[in-house]
Amino acid sequence: xxxxxxxxxVLVAFLAGPAACEGAFICFNGWLRLPIICPRGSxxxxxxxxxxxxxxxxxxxxxxxxxxxxxxxxxxxxxAVVVDKNPGIGAGLIRLFFxxxxxxxxxxxxxxxxxxxxxxxxxxxxPPNKNSLRGFEVIYEAKTAIEAAxxxxxxxxxxxxxxxxxxSYFLSDGxxxxxxxxxRYDGRESFASETDQLPGPFSNVPQxxxxxxxxxxxxxxxxxxxxxxxxxxxxxxxxxxxxxEMNQTYAASLMAECGDNGNTNVNQDYVTSNxxxxxxxxxxxxxxxxxxxxxxxxxxxxTRTEVMxxxxxxxxxxxxxxxxxxxxxxxxSDQQSVEIRKVCWKVNNNYK
Length: 352
Ligand code: HEM
Prior knowledge:
Layout: H1 2-16, E1 26-27, E2 36-37, H2 69-83, H3 87-101, H4 136-149, H5 156-171, H6 205-213, H7 219-226, E3 233-235, H8 248-258, E4 265-267, H9 279-285, H10 292-295, H11 301-312, H12 316-328
Antiparallel strand pairs: 1-2, 3-4
Helix pairs in contact: 2-3, 2-4, 2-5, 3-5, 4-5, 7-11, 9-11
The structure holds protoporphyrin IX containing FE (HEM).
């Protein structure tokens, strides 16, 4: 009887999605195909944190205090993406910004491996990030050069935001110019468990909309920002269960690439893999995208209208992407982000 009841709870949790994390110790946040048992304590309900717009941010924030700051970031990104011809690092930087802002707001908590509470199980160790995020070295390189130019002035959170802006510019060949204000502060805590706030690749439309809404982003912005999947790579483990649902020619080529190794990486956009462009939306229409979370955008009237418009109207997606990225950069930390870190992967001294 107890076994049957447990099985029923697991099934209900699986079908119910993220809400199943509440109360029960069973968690499914769209990152796993099957429900997992959450560590005790992480199953408590989480109130969505209303994300206020980023008051205190302004354009050219460092013009007086550190005039070279933004140029140093731009040059570090240019070196990695253009000079060293590594567009994947640009993709990594755009994703790093998303993963920073969705967890505790844009406070560079995603970079920490040493925190105020001495927690070492930081966001970097969370399932969406571990062995996946890239581009850290560009942030550190920029920070080192900026500290040499002006000490204790420029936050790591701002460097992450400027780097995402610059990566978007270079990868779009100058078509995407995000107006990115500065003035963020760095946080002092980071927890792997909180990365469950990031939407997962097995999410459906309501789940995606809910996770974006919890960060103050609307359904149109959700579809717009998903367009970042026009660059970069993804591991087979996140889509190999849905080959049968894809365009079959596309699925066959992916199957050949993946073999039986879930850790193999493939390009997210099979047409223009290294260009930040609107091709993703045509791929959605053609059923030639990797994740459930990509494919479902073609499945509701609301999201499909956006997909069609983005695919068919020159410049429409690019302008929306600029605005949505800027807005994402204004998600405020629900904790106090209090310092300008000296080194981006550890909080300043005086641990509590
Ligand atoms: C809509 C919900 C989203 C889901 C479910 C999702 C999920 C994922 C997953 C599973 C990967 C592959 C990770 C791996 O295999 O290691 C990935 C890659 C990527 N995502 Fe998303 N993502 C979403 C939204 C976004 C947003 C909003 C952005 C940025 C604005 C973004 C940018 C990227 C980029 C650029 C990559 C490739 C990274 C690289 O090549 O290093 N994603 N995403």
